[in-house]
Design a protein that fits this description.
There is one protein chain. This protein has 2 domains: 88 residues, no CATH class; 369 residues, Alkaline Phosphatase, subunit A (3-Layer(aba) Sandwich), CATH 3.40.720. Helix content is 34%, strand content 14%.
């Protein structure tokens, strides 16, 4: 549809002096806007103009050769207990009920009880001989592909701030997420899907959109959130996102409307007006237009073999693991899959009341899916270039809170990585003999972030963004690459 001969009439009909007013009157249909990329593809822009408004999600060169091209973060909000999962501490059994000095010096609000041995058994697995709790039997079978970091520590033992620290590198929700920084630095490999997708089976993790937001980075680098339960309940792959389809216009009409706005966009550019915020919205809308076709395909798991579906097993978290593999296989740069349960945004915090039932139930819900993801990535040749990161915002104390529970522990806890250049079959760092405090090769969250960026080919000190008069970065003014975990 051509509008060149009717430019004056179009402007008169809408009676608006700028794109902003025009766009505000078009409504909120996802497919309604046409967008900088449309202009370039339609030949409406000169070469210089096309380059100037090139999609922010266009793939970018890393600072150096990367080990990983993409990342899947398996986030366990609420604080999984390190001494009940992957940090075996047999000394707890011999000191049950006691309160050594190291415990008294590091006491939290509800850790007045004595040391509490893990109620779960531990066994050694793999050639590495790694000790793993009985509540993770499937992940235990993958230990030779995993690099465990047992010496993590963070700044505060409070959920909301610690979750933000893990996902943003900052205690306040005013900074871009790690996923946002990665897409800002590297772009995406599929122009029809977001560069960053965040998912959860039920509730969003505490902090909600801040965990996958872009803050002061351009809006194109924010994550797109998917509720897995909603997709399952609806039964349609395109139900994962609200308002994905424009119910008022068919694709041809949307394209015609997009071309009209593209022409008006060109008129605006000729006046040499710059509006970065509007350009970000334009790109987001164009992406949404393309997603109408791409999203149902990538979220439709019916094409998977029975063997693959059986590998992952039932459950929404397992479904999320399978979708994570499908997304990165299609070129999505970052996938964040958070664990959640009905009405509880910090699932693993059930450890306050009952470690036995709480942790056993949560581990059962995610253990098989996690192991299947690692196995599936490996057999498809994707694990070497995909970094998988598992962990929560902190751990839990080795002392008792009441009869069966444990309080928060930010002094020392465990995360693990697999694939993507992480050294397989190893354990890095250590907590003290009771699992309370990181004492060997201590790793702060900012060190972890620096290492993730490094594995993705980015120098954390060079990946900056100028805002409000200063250069910001994911690791703020700290962080060092953990060389001991690199393959």
């Amino acid at each position: 549809m051509k509008f060149l001969a009717h430019e004056a009439a179009v402007r008169a009909a809408f009676a608006v002096p700028s794109r902003r007013q025009f766009l505000s009157q078009l409504g909120s249909g996802f497919g309604s806007l046409g967008l900088a990329a449309v202009m370039a593809e339609s030949g409406l822009l000169l070469a210089g103009e096309a380059q100037a408004i090139l999609s922010p999600l266009t793939p970018k060169k890393p600072h150096f050769a990367p080990k990983a091209k993409r990342i899947i973060q398996l986030f366990m909000p609420g604080g999984p207990s390190q001494v009940d999962t992957f940090d075996y501490k047999p000394a707890l059994a011999g000191n049950a009920g006691q309160r050594p000095d190291i415990v008294n010096r590091k006491s939290l609000r509800n850790t007045k009880g004595g040391l509490m041995p893990s109620p779960f058994g531990f066994r050694r697995y793999g050639q590495s001989g790694k000790w793993v709790s009985d509540i993770f039997p499937h992940v235990a079978g993958c230990v030779d592909d995993i690099c465990f970091v047992h010496s993590m520590h963070t700044d505060v033992p409070e959920h909301a701030s610690a979750i933000l620290m893990m996902n943003l590198g900052h205690l306040q929700p005013t900074r871009p997420s790690m996923g946002g920084w990665l897409v800002y630095g590297l772009g995406s490999e599929n122009r029809n899907l977001p560069g960053f997708v965040a998912m959860s089976p039920r509730a969003q993790p505490r902090g909600n959109l801040a965990n996958w937001g872009s803050a002061f980075l351009p809006g194109a680098y924010a994550g797109t959130y998917v509720n897995i339960e909603r997709m399952r309940a609806n039964g349609k792959p395109d139900a994962v996102l609200n308002h994905l389809r424009n119910l008022s216009l068919d694709p041809q009409a949307q394209r015609q409307q997009a071309d009209l706005v593209a022409r008006l966009n060109q008129m605006h550019l000729r006046r040499e007006e710059k509006d970065p915020g509007l350009e970000a919205n334009i790109e987001s809308m164009e992406l949404a237009f393309r997603m109408q076709a791409a999203v149902p395909e990538v979220f439709d798991t019916a094409s998977e073999t029975k063997e693959t579906l059986g590998l992952y097993g039932p459950g929404d978290f397992a479904k999320g693991c399978l979708l994570a593999r499908r997304l990165i296989e299609k070129g999505v740069r970052v996938v964040q899959l958070s664990h959640s349960i009905d009405g509880y945004d910090i699932a693993w915090d059930t450890g306050h009341d009952d470690i036995v039932n709480g942790h056993a139930t949560l581990a059962k819900a995610c253990d098989r899916g996690i192991a299947a993801l690692l196995t599936d990535l490996k057999r498809r040749g994707l694990l070497d270039e995909t970094l998988v990161l598992w962990g929560g915002e902190f751990g839990r104390a080795p002392t008792s809170e009441g009869a069966k529970g444990r309080d928060h522990d930010h002094y020392g806890y465990t995360v693990w990585m697999a694939g993507g250049g992480a050294r397989p079959g190893t354990s890095y760092g250590a907590t003290d003999e009771f699992g309370l405090t990181a004492v060997e090769n201590r790793v702060h969250v900012r060190d972890l972030h620096a290492t993730v960026l490094h594995l993705m080919g980015l120098d954390h000190e060079r990946l900056t963004y100028r805002y409000s008069g200063r250069d910001y970065r994911l690791t703020d003014v700290a962080g060092s690459v953990i060389r001991g975990v690199l393959a």
